[in-house]
Amino acid sequence: MSLVITDLHAQLEDGTEILKGVTLEIPAGEVHAIMGPNGSGKSTLSKVISGHEGYEVTAGSVTLDGEDILEMSIDERSRAGVFLAFQYPAEVPGVSNANFIRAALQARLPKGQELDAVAYYKSLYEKMDLLEMDRKFTARAVNEGFSGGEKKRNEILQMLMLEPKYCILDETDSGLDIDALKIVAKGVNAMRSTDRGMLLITHYQRLLDYIKPDVVHVMSAGRIVKTGGPELALELEEKGYDFLKELTVA
Ligand SMILES: Nc1ncnc2c1ncn2[C@@H]1O[C@H](COP(=O)(O)OP(=O)(O)O)[C@@H](O)[C@H]1O
Ligand SMILES: [Mg+2]
Prior knowledge:
By secondary structure, this protein is an alpha/beta fold. It has one domain (2-246): 3-Layer(aba) Sandwich (Rossmann fold). It is built from nine helices and twelve strands. It has helices at 42-50, 74-80, 97-106, 117-130, 148-162, 178-191, 207-210, 231-239, 243-249, and strands spanning 2-12, 17-27, 31-35, 55-64, 67-68, 82-85, 92-96, 141-142, 166-170, 197-202, 215-220, 223-228. Strands 6-9-10-3-11-12 form a six-stranded mixed sheet, sandwiched between helices. Helix 5 (148-162) runs parallel beside helix 6. The protein is globular. Bound molecules: adenosine-5'-diphosphate (ADP) and magnesium ion. Adenosine-5'-diphosphate (ADP) binds at residues 12, 18, 36, 38-44, 54.
């Protein structure tokens, strides 16, 4: 059981290649982190895995528990168990948070089966309590007028409710103050499980003080250039991303 990315190449519509052969395996039960400088292709990788438009895969494969997901629509990938918490979460005007998550859960049920409303709200409130989110966020339109930190927390709420098999968190730590970071980490740690794989994308080591990864990858210029244990994140923080230059030359 794993999310396997093999020699993935992807380009923009204008032909600019952003991912230049990414190979990565995230087994269920493990938490992996990808660190790397701005512009190295981290968000592009997460969007290509989740099926975002605007990127063309020119080579390589992405499989989820052995199943090729590159031919699937965003929706199908989501139902297959991929979840992406966006670096810049989108606003969905006119749709309340509670209805948005409810619709996503309903869509996962077999035809004709109705989501139990009482159980749904009970679970929603439990998760909001864990994330210290005010109940007023159930009625507000998805992310509309939310602060940066509130949007990030809301992404984690969706993740907790959908219980995806593979979670990708793109810079969920950026824009969070330390208290919010701890709360988000609590939510993510609550999701850790032997049958779930997680990929944390982050520019900073800070998040990894609260969510201990099993494996750390360093991405630079569209490739994974180094893989190691949690100590790699500390090394990167200490030396800065300049040390990548040595790696790319070597
Ligand atoms: N839709 C897009 N249009 C134009 N350039 C893009 C687009 N998506 C990504 N890029 C470019 O691809 C490179 C990698 O971007 P991104 O994946 O966001 O990097 P990271 O998340 O590591 O900071 C950057 O140079 C960025 O400007
Ligand atoms: Mg990014």
